[in-house]
Amino acid sequence: MKLEPRSGRRANARRGVTLVEVVIAMPIILVAASLMLGTLTTAARQRTVNGDNARAAEAVRSILETLRNEDFRQMVALFDQEPFNDPLGPGTAPGNSFDVPGLRPLEGDLDGRVGEILLPLFDAAPAGALVPEWQLREDIEDAALGLPQDLNGDGAVDSLDHSGDNRILPVVAVVRWQGQFGPRTLRMFTLFTEYRY
């Protein structure tokens, strides 16, 4: 006896995809594709942000190592904003700003450099003076620098200039740049001490 396939509606109904199945499957496929595309786009954006953060962190680490390699007594003169007190003559020191290749400065940045070194300096020049008189002070209210703080180790916080007798120097290195999604900032604090033998 030879078996032949059954013909009829029941056998034909299972052979193809119905319109109802297509209508149900299409939104599911579209949602899955949309989620996948969104994930890929976000990952690409995050890669850019991570690259910028890595460049900024490396620049901060590098500038702090540069400071560490300098003579402690000359750190303030080398890395303050005043070019006229540079140890080798006006304009010869690195100053308080630095570049970070690959990062764009913020709009309105006056010097066009994204990096800045912050020291506990106070302009003690009289009001209206044309030339600033920078002093290394303990009594400045600056939480980012951990001030007020005893910088010369005498046990007191005073309003004197400690540029010549400080034993510790708080420093903040800051990088501010225009990121892909708006302004970005990375800041790192360290405390340098004078080693005496």
List keywords for this structure.
6 strands; two-stranded antiparallel ribbon; 197 residues; 18% strand; alpha+beta; 4-stranded antiparallel beta sheet; elongated; 30% helix
Number of helical runs? 3
> What structural class is derived from the secondary structure elements?
alpha+beta
Q: Which whole number gives the mean pLDDT?
A: 89
**What is the makeup of the main sheet?**
4 strands, antiparallel
Q: What's the β-strand tally?
A: 6
Distance between the amino and carboxyl termini = 109 Å
Write the H/E string, N to C: HHHEEEEEE
Q: So what's the overall shape? A: elongated
Q: How many structurally independent domains?
A: 1
Strand content: 15-25%
Rg calculated over all Cα atoms = 32 Å
Topology of helices and strands:
Layout: H1 9-13, H2 19-68, H3 75-79, E1 97-98, E2 115-118, E3 121-123, E4 134-136, E5 168-179, E6 182-193
Antiparallel strand pairs: 1-2, 2-5, 3-4, 5-6
Please provide a written account of the structure:
The protein is of the alpha+beta class. The protein has one domain (21-193). Helices cover 30% and strands 18% of the residues. The chain contains 3 helices and 6 strands, in the order αααββββββ. It has helices at residues 9-13, 19-68, 75-79; strands at 97-98, 115-118, 121-123, 134-136, 168-179, 182-193. The strands form 2 sheets. A 4-stranded antiparallel β-sheet has the order 1-2-5-6, with helices on one face. β5 (168-179) and β6 (182-193) form a beta hairpin. The N and C termini lie far apart (109 Å). The relative contact order is 0.14.
